[in-house]
Structure formats: C-alpha cells, structure tokens
Amino acid sequence: MHQIKSLHILCIVGLFLSQVVDAMQQCVINIPGQFVEFSTTDDVNVAANEITLIEDQSVYLRNGFEISSSLGFLSGDSAVQNQSNNSLSSIQNASFAGSNIFINFTTGTFEPKSNLQEFLEGIALIKDKNLFISFNKFLRNEQSEINFYNTNITSCAQSSEGWNISAENIYINEKTKRGSIRNLNLELFDKTIFKLPYLPFPATTERLSGFLMPDISFSNDGLDFYIPIFLVTSESSDVTFSPRRINDRGSGVEINFRSRKEDMLNTFDLIYFSGDKKYSSNNDERWAFKLEQSFVISNLHIKFNWSDLSDSLLLSDIPTNLDSFSNRRNYTLPQKVFIGIPLFGGRLSVENENYISLNPFEIIEFKKAPKIQYEYFRSIGNSQLSIDFKSEKFSKPDILLQLFARDRLSQNIKSFGRRDILDLKIASYLYAGPHKFILNNQVILKNYDVENNVSQNNAFMRSYFAFERGFFSKTKTYKHNLGIEFGLGFANYQDQSSDPIFDLNSSIVSLLGDHNNEILGYDRIIDERFLKLGIKSSYKRNDLRNINKLFYKKRFSNSKVLEQLMGPLPDNQDFLMIKNKTRYKNTNFYISGLYDNNLNKFINYDAKLNYDRSQFRFFISKKFTRNIINLDINEFNYLEIGSEIFINASLNLMFGLREDLFGNQKIENFLGLGYENCCFAFRIIANDDRLVNLTKNNQFINMRDLNYANWEKMISLENKSRISFEFEFKGLTNKKNKISKLFNEYLKNF
Is the pTM of this model over 0.70? Predict the structure, then answer.
C-alpha cells in the first residue's frame, strides 16, 4: 500500500467529533464526557490499495483506504483528498473508530476552509454508554450551525424491545451554545410514551440557562411531575426553578438558589404550593423555606441559618428533592443569626438560636438568645492558651430536657434565665525524645440569673497530668506504631443541686467515657479524682489496616454530683474503653464500647461490619446503651442488617431490617428486586417504616408530666408502608440512587 505523510485529514474528523459530542453533552441524551480529543499532531498516516492523481491537486483513494493517528482510525471504500485545501470528499462506505466512539456512514464530506462537514445515512456507537445514535443526515455549515435530521437514539439492540428517542431535527448553534429538538418522541416497547413538539437545551458543558431533565414519579398521591429550569444569574450564582404538579394535591414550585464567594456557599431553598386538596378543603397555601447565608463586610462576619414553614406536617406530606429539607429524622428547623468581629486577637460574637417544632401535636421550642461570646486562642512555645466567655439567655427550655429530664428535677429547678460562663484553659507540652509530658489546667467560673436571683459562687478547677511514650517500627512489608499513656486527673466539687439546667450535652450518653467531664453541659460539672492508663496502636501491612485504642479509667472516690443525680454509686468505680477499626480487602469492621468493671457488663457499645464485593454486599450494625438513669431511659438497643445479592448479570435482590431490640419494635423492613440489561434498568422495593415508640416496654422509667400521647400521634402519622420504584433508560438517564440510600449507615443518629 502507498503511504502519504503529514496530512491533517484525521484532525478535521477529530475536531468534528469533539464538537458534536461536546454539543450533545447537555441535550436530552445526557452523555457525559468528551469522546475524541482534538489534536494538531502531524503524525497522520494515510494508506490505500490504489492511489490515483487527478486534476486540481487531488488524490483519489480507491479500493479501500485507511487513515490513522492518535485520534483514531478512519477507513472506507474510497475518498478524494484535495491537497490545495486539505479537504476530503466523496467518502464512500466509511467508518471511524475513536477512543470512545465508533461511527459508520454511507457518504461524507469535509471542507475545512468553508467549515462544511456532512455525513449521510450514519450510525454511531458511544462505547461507555452503549448508546446508538442513527441519522439520515448530519450537516455542519459555514455559520457553525449543526443539524441532525431524522435521528434515533437508543441503547437497545432491538429498540422495539426497549426504549427509543426519535426526533425530526436536532439543531445546535456552536456560537450561541444553544440548541433545540423538534418533534421529539419517547417510545417504550414500541409504544409512544410522550411527545414534545419543541424542546430547547444548552449545548455546552459550561453553565448556561435552560431546561434540565424532567422528574416523574408515582406515589399514593398520584403522578408527581416537575420540569427543572436552570438559570445562570451571574458567574458565581444560579437558580433552579421547578414548576411541579402532584395529581391528588395540586400545583406548586420548588426553588433552589446558590451563590459562591470565595469559600462560602450561600443557598436559599423554597417549596410552595398554592393549595393542597388533601390537606385542607379551603385550599390553603403551604410553604417552607430555608436560608443559609454567610458573608463578610470589612471584618464583620455575618451568618444566617433561618427556616420557617406554613404548617408542621408539610415536610411529611410532600417529599422534596431539596437537600435542606430531606432529613425527616429531624423534628425541628433552625432559626439562627450569627454576627462576629475580630477583637483584641480573638473574636466577639452575638448569636440568636431558636428551633421550631415539626410535631403539630406537641409544640416544643428551644430558644437561646441573645448569646454573647468572646473567644481567644494563642500558642506560646509549647503551651496553648484559650479563653472562652459566653453570656446566654434561655427563654425556652431545651427539647431533650423537656422530653427526658423534666420529671427528674425538683420543681424549684428552673430551665430559663441567664447563664454566664468563663472557661480558661492552659495546655503545656514537653518533649524529651520519644517521651511526651502533658499538663492541662482548666478554670471554669459560672453565674446564673434566674428571676433576678443571682448565683455567683460556682468556681471549678480541673487538672490533668499525663506521660506518653511512643514506639515505631517499619520494614518493607509493614508499619507499626505503638503508644502508651499514664495520666492523673482532678476536678473539685461544688454543690450544683439548686442550679438551673438550661441545656443538655450530647456526651451524656457516654458520660463516663474517655474525655467527658460534663454531664449536663456546664450546668452539672462532675467532681472526680482518677487514674487513666491507655494504649494506642496502628498497624499497616499489604491490604490490612488496623487501629486500636484501649483506655482504663479508675475513680479514687465517688462523684457527689453523679450521686445527686443517679443515686448511690459503687465505691472506686473503674471503666474500660475499647476502640478498634480494621480494614482487610473488601471487609471493614469497627467496634467501640465502655465496660463497667463494677457491673461486669458493657454500658454501651457500637459495632459495625461491612463486606462489599461486585456480586455481594452485606452490612450489620448494632448500637447499645443501658441504664441512662439521668435521662430516665432503661436501654437503647438497635440492630440493622442489610444485603444485596447479584443473582446473575441482570437480576439482583436486596433486603434489610432495622429493629429496636429492647422495645421489640420494627423500625423499618425493606425488600427489593432489580433487573438490568443493556437497554434499561428497573428496581422495585417495598418498605415499612415504624418510628420508635419510646413509651413501650417501659423504655422510659418515669413518664409523669409528659404528654406522650401527642408523640404517639406523630409516630402513628409518620408510620407508612410504601412501594417505590426507579426506572432508568441506559445511556439516557442517570440513576436516582434513592433506593441505594437504604444502604447508607442509618443508625448513626440514634
């Protein structure tokens, strides 16, 4: 075969393909990525079985030709190459193979000077999406306008047995980066599902205003349909406006506004329905919004995290794609405003903090405003100094306090008023080779003002001295770190039995843990003298990763504060805390727990096991906490199991359960089946939600003064059984992943 060097023909093919694919990225077929990379390389080889020189500096490639370069491979029966304008015309029965595309066409022409490109009777295969695109004619004119005529798009070997999109014309303007589709038909199993006479779309990967992929779903409220419209408002902001129709409820809209400045992302989410036929016969408006805004004016830092809604049941009745409203395990919405300014090397801030209830039967709110705080931190050599002063006014009690602790407190214990806290910490470190000495000192001063009755005699001193020694070993095959710690701690006693309790601290669940010294935030500070011994290790070898922590803590005397809250305690309490994280190939394991040597049992533990391979997924999680007397709760004991089994290349089964073992209650069960082939994917799942009823089996020890019936109404309202499904046209739409979220860790918030 004859060889001709330094031709740019294939570069023109590459340019054409890259422009077409780039334009198609944002259209209805939704193809991500760029398939052919444009290159100006001269490394182009042209070969033909017969080459004939003809007039006008043209070369006739006959009886089969091949053109190859780093961009791909073009072959065909014949073509004419004009050396004067570097054009390629009269291409007959040709095919092009690129890194991610294969295209066949009957005839074709390339004229780079006039920018004319034309294919007739072609079909293209997008490899990574298994997507077939056929057309009667492709034309790119001198005005950089692209037209596909009589186009069909599918991923099915037989479109009559799957899905197909046909269009009379797909138009793309490369200069304006906009396009349109005329007479679009979506067919499923050879039946037309819907038609659109005209659909505009952005024809670029850049941010550009236009329509996004519609969302269609079915529920017990009937058909739920909305079309998102994406609007670019500036280089750093955009808004998605989504008109929505729920058949049995009414019409509404969802709006998501986003703006970014430096590292700050500001958002505004709104869901609005002009009326709801199921909720009210009067067709009352229903709405909810959430604003998260952060900005800096000179040195003034301002943050808003503010939510509100028309009624407490809105987010239960109407599901939404807005992320800020999607977590229905939360029963409050925040209303926060923060203003901070640098001052004397630290920061002075003022904050309003309020939460509104999402339970219509039990209106519970928590308000802490205003909160004035000054924070200062400085490192001096091997020492660190921190100062934290805050003055907070509590006008509505803490939610957890109302639910769990009200009947445990004396009637004269108040839950509203003002609290002033000064927290001073000094941490010092001394290094001597592998040895490390630590000295932490903390002074806390707190005052209360309740109904003009001021308390000013609460002062606390806490100290901790520790010695640490590290060992390290390493070879070509493994790495091992080992550290030991020996420490002594002290905190003085002050009678706090008559002090108010304003807010609960999350560390109460593990109140005897490693670092916790507070039982109810600053309102009840534990007095103690203790010894702590600890071992930490990490090990790495090939596919094995292992981290272990073991701490032993022994109290030399009983805590008077704990006994005032919990009653008599065993002498010389000692505890053992363990943590382990292990990963080996496809298996991950984690466990942490606190063991009471006096009771000879675990007070709490958290264990997880996860196994993930291409044909099998499995997870199990267990959380347990017992005898949380200060919360009036006997026991929390939750189990979660789930699995997904791929029976063959097309069929998979998924199932799982979440259960309250102590209350003998099902939290959620689910069972699903999925089918997938090269054409489409279908998944159906049935699940049964049962929110936990903490009044069952005396899970609460005392239930005086609380209206648990209202919470049972809420639980009954939200307990639902439903069937969900996902349908995916392979190569056309992306997965919704709503079902796969069932495999996320679920119990972490309990």
Answer: no
